[in-house]
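Archive record:
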Amino acid sequence: MRGTRRVLVAADKFKGSLTAVQVAERVTAGLRRVAPDVEVEALPAADGGDGTVDAAVAAGFERREVRVEGPLGDEVTAAFALRGDTAVVEMAEASGLQRLPAGVFAPLTASTYGSGELLRAALDAGARTIVFGVGGSATTDGGAGMLSALGARFLDADGEPIPPGGGGLAELARADLSGLDPRLAAVELVLASDVDNPLTGPKGAPAVYGPQKGASAEDVATLDAALAHFAKVLEGVGGAGAGAGAGSLAAEYAASPGAGAAGGIGFGAMLLGARFQAGIEVMLDVLGFAPALERASLVITGEGSLDEQTLHGKAPAGVAAAARAAGKDVVAVCGRLALGPEVLERAGIRRAYALTEIEPDVATCIAEAGPILERVAERIGTDCLG
C-alpha cells in the first residue's frame, strides 16, 4: 500500500462521540500531520439510520428544516436533505430515540406522525424520489402515525381515531387509505434500512427491538399482537392513488424483509409503495460513492464499534465490499474492535485501527474520541502513506 496519495474517507459516526463528518475531519487532520501532501476526499457514510441527513448534506444536499410532531406529540425541529428532485428523509429526525427526554421511554404510545409530516414536507419541496432512511426509532406503531399524517384514517369501533402508538392499534376497527396524499403515487419511495426483520413474530419489530425502546416482556407481547391486528385489519382495504391495492398486499408486506424496520415503519412505507433496499447501498449511490471510489487508491471506513453487527448491512461493510470489488485497499477505524483479522479480511478490510489500541480505557476513548482518532490516523498515514 506504499505510495498511496489519494485517500477516500467514508466512515460512519462513532455513536455517542463523533458524527460521521467529525470522523472524516479528524482522520484527515491526522493523515496530513504525517503526510502533508496527501489528497483526502471525505464522503461521510450512513446506512439509513440516525446521521443519514447529515451525511447527505456533507455530500452536497441542501438541509431543509421543518417543525413536526415528535414521538410524544410535542413539536420538534427536524431536517431532511434535498438536491434537485431527490430528498433524503431520516425518520429518526422526527421519531427517533434522540427525540425522547433522557431516561424516558414510551414503547406503547410513541408515534411516527412526525415522520409522515417530514415526508409531506419533502413532497411540498418538489421531491420525486425520496430515500426514506429508517432506524433509531422510539416507536413501534407499524407506521400508523406516519400514514395518518399523510391522510390515512384509523378508527375504533365508535368511529373515533385510535390513540397514538403501537398500543392504540389494538383498538383498530376500520382503516381507510383513500385519503392518502395523491402525490405519493407519482413518487419513487425507497425504504433504506440496515435490518431485514418482518413486522411480527420472534424476529419481528417488537420482539427484537422493543426492549431497547423500553418495552417490558408484557409490552412486547401487547405490541406484537397489536401489529398483527393492524396488518389483519388492513387486509382487503381498498384505496385510491398511493393506497390503491395496498390492503390486498398487507399480509405479504408484513412478512417481507424490512417490514419490521424502525418499529414497523417499514411496513407502513411498503403500504405507500416503497421499495426496500439495504440502506448502505442506497446511500452510497445517492452520495456519489462510485466516482469518489474511482479517484481513490486507499479507502478508510469505520464506525464506533466494529463487531458482528457490522457485517450485516452496516456502513463499513457496504463501503468495504464496494471498494474490494473495485480493487481498492481498505482500512478501518473504530472505537472498539471485536472482529479478528480473518473476518476483517473476508469483509474486504485489510486492517482495522481501534482507539483502544492507543487508549485502553473505553470511557476515555468516548470522552476524547476526536484527539485519539487523530493519533490513530497518524498511524494509518505512517503505515499506508509512507
